[in-house]
Amino acid sequence: AAGVIQSPRHLIKEKRETATLKCYPIPRHDTVYWYQQGPGQDPQFLISFYEKMQSDKGSIPDRFSAQQFSDYHSELNMSSLELGDSALYFCASSLDLHRDGGEDGYTFGSGTRLTVV
Amino acid sequence: AQSVTQLDSQVPVFEEAPVELRCNYSSSVSVYLFWYVQYPNQGLQLLLKYLSGSTLVESINGFEAEFNKSQTSFHLRKPSVHISDTAEYFCAVSPLTGGGNKLTFGTGTQLKVEL
Q1: Quick check: A1 pLDDT over 70?
Q2: By the number of CB atoms within 10 A of the CB, which of A12, A30, B36, B83 ranks highest?
Q3: Mean pLDDT value across residues B47-73
C-alpha cells in the first residue's frame, strides 16, 4: 500500500540558509500534518492543512512556512536556519478524524533529517 | 489542551518476559488515543489506536492497550516480548472535538529487550 512519502531523507544546510521539505500524503487523505522531533525528544506539532487550507498551527517559528498544493502534496519552507533547527521532520496524513470517525488514523512518513551546521 | 505523561523513560526487560508501558493523559475533552513505535533512525509507525467501541485494542504483533476513562490511562502491554521489540514507544492523543486533529505526544518510553 502507498505510504506517506517525504523528501529528501537527509539534508545538510548551513546556518542562515533556506531549506524546503516535501511531503506526499497517502492518496485520498485530505489532511496533512508537520511535526518536528528534536534529538531525544517527542514529536512536536508544527502545522496542518485540510483540503489545502491551514487548519491548525502549533509551535512553528515565524521563519517557517508551509502550504498544501492542488495535488495535496505539502512543502515546509524553512528560512534563516539556526543550529537548533536540526531535527527530524515528520509529515503525516489522514482522513479528517472528526468527519470520518478516524478509521484511517494517522500515517507518518519516514521523516527528513535536517542537520544545520 | 491535552497533555500526555509516560511515566517511564526507559524499561529494560528480558526476552519472553511481560511488559507494561504506562501512559496517562489529561484533556478537557474526549480524545482518540494512539501508540506509536519508533525504531532507531526510522519514522513513527502506528502500533494501535483507540477511537471508540471496545476499550481493549490489539495490534497484529501481540501488543494490546486498554483505555481506562476513569483513570485517564492507555497502558500498553505485551505478555512476552521479543528482542525485535526494542524501540521507542510514544503514546499520543488527539481531541475528538476542536484541536484540529493534531497529536500531542508523550515523551516516549525506551523499551530495551535483553537476552
Answers
A1: no
A2: B36
A3: 91
Residue B84 is predicted with a pLDDT of 95
Q: In chain B, which residue's Cα lies nearest the Cα of A56?
A: B100
Give the CA distances from residue B55 to residues A93, B49, B61, B64, B74, in Å, rounded to whole numbers and listed in that order. Answer: 25, 10, 18, 10, 9
Burial class (CB in 10 A: 0-12, 13-18, 19+), A47: buried
The least confident of A31-35, A84-88, B22-26, B94-98 is B94-98
Written as nine digits, the cell of A103 is 478509521
User: Which residues, 6+ apart, have CB-to-CB distance to B46 below 8 Å?
Assistant: A105, A106, A107, A108, B34, B35, B36
| Residue B42 touches chain A, beta carbons under 8 Å | yes
Interface residue A35 vs chain B (CB under 8 A): yes
Q: How high is the pLDDT of residue A100?
A: 55
